[in-house]
Amino acid sequence: MTKIQFFDTTLRDGEQTPGVSFSTEEKVAIALQLEKWGVDVIEAGFPASSRESFRAVEEIAKVATKMSVTGLARLVKHDIDQAFEALKEAKFPQIHVFIATSPIHMEYKLKMTPDEVIASIKEHVSYAREKFEIVQFSPEDATRSEKDFLLKAVQTAVDAGASVINIPDTVGYSNPQEYGELFRYLIENVQTDREIIYSSHCHDDLGMAVSNALSAIKNGSRRVEGTINGLGERAGNTALEEVAVALKIRQDYYGQETQINLKETKNTSDLISRFSGISVPKNKAVVGGNAFAHESGIHQDGFLKNPNTYEIITPEMVGVAQSSLPLGKLSGRHAFKEKLKELGYTLSEEEVKEAFIRFKDLADKKNNISDTDLRALLTGQTIEKAKGVELEELNFSYHAGGTQEVDIAVRFETGEVKSAKANGKGSVEAVFAAIDQIFDHEIIVNSYELDAITAGVDAQAQVYVSITDRLTNNTYNAVGIDYDILKASALAYIYANNFVRQ
Ligand SMILES: CC(=O)SCCNC(=O)CCNC(=O)[C@H](O)C(C)(C)COP(=O)(O)OP(=O)(O)OC[C@H]1O[C@@H](n2cnc3c(N)ncnc32)[C@H](O)[C@@H]1OP(=O)(O)O
Ligand SMILES: CC(C)C(=O)C(=O)O
Ligand SMILES: [Mg+2]
């Protein structure tokens, strides 16, 4: 079994994500976490690009003890010198130099002829090699380069001393078969006596960054470049946590090892999500909030009988506390019963059957069924509109930065109308205080949830309120729906209080 090196460029390509900018302190914290995760090489930045980038690379070079630290440089002597200066204190320094080799980049961006590009590779890779033991060369936009010219560029870099050849799919243009074949082609045709490491660097424009990186590995690549959470230019880079887990789970297929400490995966992803301000989509592989959640009945049933029926990765493997079985309208009786057990209820088969019917009705109306909802359901309460009570009037005066005033009237089934006035620091607080006066119950508010049912400024608001009657210890849930948030809040709270009264 051979080993795949992990090259993390979260701090360089990842920081190229529009809107993302890490401070030097955040970069150092991320670097230390990446070292804990087990990366082999960290691309700490592009030292010539700014003073902050230089300082961050310098600081990371000082603190990295196990991983190699590299910096990016154009084929420009000043860039290479800056990288050398920034990496002076690194225990294991490397440099990463690049130039584009595709016709469109050479002609329009670089304004260089192919011969000039080859001459620049020869000159600058040699220059970099005088300063660094390990030089990585990238022919930018490799996958849109002419194959013969790409080979010539790579051969020139190898002859000039590069020992790592990284093949960037800069604009995410390639596909797994084609990208894999490109690695085979280069590995078979570059002439050298030295050992050359071939590396992949993929972008996700067509959603194939991870698949392309894995195909490169299958075709002889021994280094994978990418970022945590797939951060990076445009649609991002290869998500390294996905590659790490894929190599582990499908070791039978890839036959490769890594030195990644998978248990640190979730911590690493969380840290980068926090510092970048880019949240991880719920359905993202490996680290998404739903990666270990099963809501549909058949899956929940299978999972309860044997977790392997529906989970190929265990949550523990990647540092997630545990799998979850959230209840929803597609859930089944097995998971429902399991949840009741967890909440401490022992019901007869008949009672479970009856409660399950009410649960399904509730789940048809409410997306997230909480433990509080279930407790209320089991004490016989539903979120149906309470009968015989109506909001007669709701007047509100808003004072920016001050106390809010509410004037409310409620009509009961007898025709009686009760009204009250109240103040509060916030509008909802004032509404609730006024309703408290009308009902005069000893209650505890367990939760207040606000959802937008529809999108846009005219969205319908749906408010859920859960309260517990201090006298009986019973919990009551109610829902209020209106285009106005305050009215929806008032309705939910009135209905919940009316349950206590009944
Ligand atoms: C595919 C990638 O991700 S590549 C990395 C992209 N990352 C970044 O660009 C982030 C950091 N970049 C920067 O801070 C700035 O672009 C700098 C400091 C590098 C350069 O800034 P400026 O001197 O103002 O130039 P600017 O960015 O406008 O243009 C880039 C110049 O570099 C040239 N260039 C681009 N790539 C290379 C290369 N690999 N080797 C040599 N020259 C290059 C361009 O042709 C252009 O040259 P020109 O000024 O003669 O037209
Ligand atoms: C600098 C190179 C490796 C790059 O980020 C790309 O081509 O996408
Ligand atoms: Mg890139």
Helix content: 25-40%
- Compute the number of strand runs: 16
Major sheet summary line: 8 strands, parallel, barrel
User: How many structural domains in the coordinates?
Assistant: 3
Tell me the strand order in the biggest sheet: 2-3-4-5-6-7-8-9
CATH-level-2 architecture of the largest domain? Alpha-Beta Barrel
- Identify the overall geometry: elongated
CATH superfamily of the largest domain: Aldolase class I
Number of helices: 17
Question: Can you characterise this structure?
Answer:
With 502 residues, the protein is of the alpha/beta class. It has three domains: 2-276, TIM Barrel; 297-365, no CATH class; 389-501, Alpha-isopropylmalate synthase LeuA, regulatory domain (Double Stranded RNA Binding Domain), CATH 3.30.160.270. 40% of the residues lie in helices and 21% in strands. The chain is built from 17 helices and 16 strands. Strands 2-3-4-5-6-7-8-9 form an eight-stranded parallel barrel, surrounded by eight helices. Helix 7 links the parallel strand 7 (164-169) and strand 8 (197-202). Helix 1 packs antiparallel against helix 11. The protein starts with a strand and ends with a helix. The mean pLDDT is 94. The site of magnesium ion has 6 residues, from loops. Its cofactor is Mn(2+). GO terms for molecular function: 2-isopropylmalate synthase activity; acetyl-CoA C-acetyltransferase activity; manganese ion binding.
Question: Which key features would you list for this structure?
Answer:
502 residues; alpha/beta; TIM Barrel; Double Stranded RNA Binding Domain; eight-stranded parallel β-barrel; three-stranded antiparallel β-sheet; 17 helices; 21% strand; elongated; binds 3-methyl-2-oxobutanoic acid; binds magnesium ion; LeuA/HCS_post-cat; manganese; LeuA_bact_synth; LeuA_allosteric_dom_sf
